Amino acid sequence: MNISIAILFAAFPALLVYLCYRFAAFRKIGTVLLCYIAGMIVGNIGVLPAGFAPVQSTMADMSVAIALPLLLFSLDVRKWFRVAGKGMLCMLLAVVSIVIVAFALQLWLRSSNPMAWQLSGLAIGVYTGGTPNLAAIKSALGIRNDTYILFHTYDTVLSLLYIFLMSSIARPFFVRYMRLRPFEAPATSGTDDVTDDEEESIDAYAGLFKPGILGRLGLAVLLSCAIVGVSAFIGGLLPPTAGTAVTILAITTLGIAASFIKPVRRIRKTFQAGMYVIYVFCFVVASMTRLDSLIHIDYAILGYVALSIFGSLFLHALFCRLAKIDADTFIITSVSAICSPPFVPVVAGALKNKAILISGLTTGIVGYAIGNYLGISVAYLFKNLPF
């Protein structure tokens, strides 16, 4: 019975991906949010057997581990250097901004909230990377499922508000009141380098089951599992308190290392496969929560998320003004950091500026690569501060 339900759990997000691909209304909601909604419904209507909880926990842990290498295989490190100028400087300033804000929140809350150091890890990871980093850091820091769901729920709601603002009034506001320079178009935009496989859009799932793609993708999944096995062995050599974090970091490192191997990097749809496994994670974790724990708003976590997003946004804008970075580069880099690459084309379209698309996508991928390192290491640093 448990095996059958586990298979259904692994297959169900495929239906949601199809619905988002087929219908604009579902696409506007987003696959991740749909997975959480569906998971919470399934987990709270009494259809799951009493002994299914250990299976859910195992699926949640394994899905994150297997997804990470798949997400990293398609990295082209040389592309980082092709946008190394303003885009990379702007991304660095975004990272510095969220670390500073998280540090200030840590000093403010640590005496009253013992989870403050864990929240800092989640905030730094997700606001430099994205959902995959949030999921990985959740596992690495041993964060409770209910805390994770609350953080991600509030993040989803506030991020929608953030995206609306960045797609509408952000450019005139930051040019006029924050004195950021208007964008100056380069001679060539470089957007021809962007392919469907490099985007986290739902349309990139088209053709995933073609025989020529599916066979190679199976090999990529096997390589991902091998990386997980080696990383788990390395983590098992250390005490349990550090083993999980080291395992996650080892998976990230080996995934990036594998991206240097051209045959691995050229396997198509590995990024989409990794995101699908993240959708499975979202569905499974949501099914483990109880809706009665979400009835009352946790103002501490809500406030932490709000201050992390908008506090780091305005600090980032100030830094970009001092560094003389233009408004469009600031906006698209902020979006790629705070909301991850899927929102980059949306905002670039709203700004009517496709020249910044490749910069936003590439800095977003950089965020995926560094988010785990930053979130985990800074969280433990904050935990062990003597003051």
Q: Give a count of the beta strands, DSSP E runs of length 2 or more.
A: 0
Distance between the termini: 51 Å
- Compute the gyration radius: what is it? 20 Å
Task: Give the structural class.
Answer: mainly alpha
Describe what is shown at a glance.
The protein is mainly alpha-helical.
Please characterize this protein's 3D structure.
- With 387 residues, the protein is an all-alpha fold.
- The chain has one domain.
- The protein contains 18 helices and no strands.
- Helix 6 (86-109) packs antiparallel against helix 7 (116-126) and helix 12 (240-259) runs antiparallel to helix 18 (357-383).
Key terms:
globular, mainly alpha, 387 residues
Break the fold down into its secondary structure elements and pairings.
Layout: H1 2-22, H2 24-29, H3 31-44, H4 53-72, H5 77-82, H6 86-109, H7 116-126, H8 131-140, H9 145-167, H10 170-176, H11 211-236, H12 240-259, H13 262-265, H14 270-287, H15 299-322, H16 327-338, H17 344-350, H18 357-383
Helix pairs in contact: 1-14, 3-14, 4-8, 4-11, 4-12, 4-14, 6-7, 6-15, 6-16, 6-18, 7-8, 7-18, 8-12, 8-18, 9-15, 11-12, 12-18, 15-16, 16-18
